[in-house]
């Protein structure tokens, strides 16, 4: 199994169920790991793997698109990764909304996906 990932990508984005969340925006941290269908080889051909620049670009584009639910953001990232990079067998994703306002001290809310 070969996994490629990026940890704690930081974005300021305008996701949220409530209009105020979408207007004010919030800090998000995103971890994404992809598992390749093929085994690691000694190939120097970038087409035999997934370029982490492509992972970042897809994540950034989807984070830049305001949505009401973090689940929808996660789905969009996973769907784009799997549909544009056929070499990907599995995606593990963790999306954290930092400083979520719930009336008490909460460090972050989290959604995780694996599949």
TrEMBL record:
A GO biological process this protein is involved in? tetrahydrofolate biosynthetic process
The Enzyme Commission number assigned here is 4.1.2.25
Q: Which InterPro entries match?
A: Dihydroneopterin_aldolase (IPR006156), FolB_dom (IPR006157), GTP-CH-I_C/QueF (IPR043133)
SUPFAM superfamilies found in the cross-reference section: Tetrahydrobiopterin biosynthesis enzymes-like
Q: Name one GO cellular component term.
A: cytoplasm
> What reaction(s) does this enzyme catalyze?
7,8-dihydroneopterin = 6-hydroxymethyl-7,8-dihydropterin + glycolaldehyde
| A GO term, aspect molecular function | dihydroneopterin aldolase activity
Lyase among keywords: yes
Tell me the keywords, alphabetical order. Answer: Folate biosynthesis, Lyase
**Pathway this chain belongs to:** Cofactor biosynthesis; tetrahydrofolate biosynthesis; 2-amino-4-hydroxy-6-hydroxymethyl-7,8-dihydropteridine diphosphate from 7,8-dihydroneopterin triphosphate: step 3/4
- What's the superkingdom here? Bacteria
Dihydroneopterin aldolase/epimerase domain: from which residue to which, for each copy?
Answer: 4-113
Q: Which Gene3D superfamilies match?
A: 3.30.1130.10
Keyword Lyase belongs to the record:
yes
Tell me its family: Belongs to the DHNA family.
Biological role: Catalyzes the conversion of 7,8-dihydroneopterin to 6-hydroxymethyl-7,8-dihydropterin.
What protein is this chain from?
7,8-dihydroneopterin aldolase
Source lineage = Bacteria, Pseudomonadati, Bacteroidota, Saprospiria, Saprospirales
């Amino acid at each position: 199994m070969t996994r490629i990932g990026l940890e704690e990508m930081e974005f300021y984005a305008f996701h949220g169920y409530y209009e105020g969340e979408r207007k004010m925006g919030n800090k998000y941290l995103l971890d994404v790991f992809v598992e390749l269908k093929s085994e690691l080889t000694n190939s120097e051909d970038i087409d035999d793997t997934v370029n982490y620049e492509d992972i970042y670009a897809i994540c950034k584009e989807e984070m830049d698109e305001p949505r009401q639910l973090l689940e929808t953001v996660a789905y969009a990232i996973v769907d784009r990764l799997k549909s544009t990079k056929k070499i990907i067998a599995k995606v593990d994703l963790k999306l954290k909304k930092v400083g979520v306002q719930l009336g008490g001290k909460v460090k972050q809310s989290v959604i995780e996906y694996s599949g």
